[in-house]
Amino acid sequence: MIDLQDIITTKRELLSRETYSRSPINYSAGMAEDQKERYIQYFAEQNQDLRLTSDAMKLVLEDFMAQMKDLKDQVSSMESKHADLENRLSEEHKLLKSAERKIKSLQERLDYAHQERFGDRRQKIQSKAKTSDSDRWKEKDDYDGTDDTLRTDSVGHAPSQEVKESSKKERDLSNRPDGYKRMGVVGEAIEHPSDLTKFPGRIIERRMVRVFSFRTFLMEECFEMVHYAEPGKKPKWGYFPSEGHPEVVTNIEGTKASPEFLQAIAYEVYVKNVTFGLLHQWLTDMGMTISKNTLRNWLKKGKTYLDELVCVLKSIALEKDSIVNCDETWCKVRKYDHYKKCYIWVLVNKARKTAIFFYENGSRGRDVLTDFLGDAELKSIMSDGYNAYVFIGNELKSGRFKDTVHQVCMSHAKNKFVKASNQGSEPNAERFSEILKEFFMRDRKYDDAGLTPKERFQERQSLATKELLIELRSLLDSELTKDSEFRSQYYKKLSII
Questions:
Q1: Counting CB atoms within 10 angstroms of each CB, which of 76, 160, 181, 370 has the fewest?
Q2: In sequence order, what DSSP letters do the residues of 108-141 get, joined into one string?
Q3: Bridge-partner residues for 383, per DSSP?
Q4: Which uninterrupted H or E stretch holds 466?
Q5: Where is the region Disordered (predicted)?
Q6: 353, 363, 355, 371: which is closest to 331 by C-alpha?
């Protein structure tokens, strides 16, 4: 290819040179006619060969240029593919770095979980530094009977009683309480005194011996109903209690069970997971005649009244602009012949001293909470960091609760920072946990001091508490300014503190 280019360039240079006329050389002078004809014929054949060679070279050049064009297209395509591969390689490299960071974080969490599950949690006592034993035979040789040669460094000085007691207290790892509560039952005890006339001799001492007995019994109460008629009115039934008797008939409407009886069988069935067969057998053994279906109907009847009670409690707990706390936990629920892990929720309104437990098919989804809250216009909801609460205060996820402030529980936040500090040795996480721990320690001091709510409020507004809040807010602002991929969304919710 390079030689052909040189030939073409050289030819163009030769053609571009200036020409000048000169007398041609007559090479055929003195030749015979037949020689001239042969000479002309020879040059004609040479010219024909050169023309054919030139045409062939043109065809070869055209094929070569076509191949060069195809090669250029292929090179261009390869360059574009190479650029795409470089972009993909860069993206894969970024994903690999992100995956490595996630693997590191997960490995730290796994190590921490293994330490929490399988680690040795026994308290270890640091052994005392061993003192070098003195050579008693050498001391004997050095002693010559005078006071100056008497060594006292090997003499065991008996520690004082106070030191012994303090060291013993530090080594006591049994976590025994300072004092013990005596056993007892609320209410007056039934006393069984001795007959002093039956003693055969002199009485030295008398004391009561405590014995606890458990008695469960059924009692049938009969209320006398009177069928009476007032002048001008239809006859009707009524209960008119005598002095010292219940004011009303103590039964749930539609049943013959008192509220205490219905509460007892509901506790046996729904809390202790007692089957209706065992419950019926238990009541039968205590002398009651009743059928299993009657027990079921009584519980259904009680449920209707309980639902009405829950509606009343909801109207109290979910008042407008209320501040509530919410949480959920797992529980075992009996499903015919097996047990299933389900979840139960609780909502607490401390201002109204109301707590409501609710359960919907054992689900832990946020639909359980949204269905329970309904159209309530709450001021704030405090909860842990579970994902079911992320819709609170987020207009994009929920239009009903966009004006409700979501507060994160400080105790759960402290535990998160403690976990981050233990796993990643983050100094900021450790400082967060220390500040939150200080808040709880101050509240314990208020409890021990027996402060009134007003005094507690004044202490919480003190300068020392405000300094901690200012430091906590500065740490939060500093963390929020950083662009972190793994930052929790609850950092912003902590700024509400």
A1: 181
A2: HHHHHHHHHHHS--SPPPPPPPPPPPP-HHHHHH
A3: 408
A4: helix 463-481
A5: 114-180
A6: 363
Tokens of 482: 């950083």
Write out the two tokens for 360.
């919907």
* d(C-alpha 375, C-alpha 290), whole Å: 44
User: In 3-state terms, what secondary structure has residue 297?
Assistant: helix
> How many other CB atoms sit within 10 Å of the CB of residue 413?
21
- For residue range 24-78, list pLDDT tens digits in order: 667 777 778 888 888 888 889 999 999 999 999 999 999 999 999 999 999 999 9
Q: Which of 337, 254, 332 is nearest to 297 (CA)?
A: 254
Residues with Cβ < 8 Å from 433, sequence gap 6 or more? 414, 417, 418, 421
Dihedral over alpha carbons 461, 466, 469, 473 (to 10 degrees): 120
Dist CA 472 CA 438 (whole Å): 11
Strands 405-408 and 323-335: unpaired
**Burial of 328 (C-beta count, 10 Å sphere; 0-12/13-18/19+):** buried
- What's the pTM value of the predicted model, to 2 decimals? 0.53
Sole residue written with tokens 């793994």: 486
Which tokens is 134 given?
A: 């003195």
Q: For 38-49, write each residue's pLDDT tens digit.
A: 888 888 999 999
Which neighbouring-strand residues pair with 148? none
| Both structure tokens of 116 | 């929490």
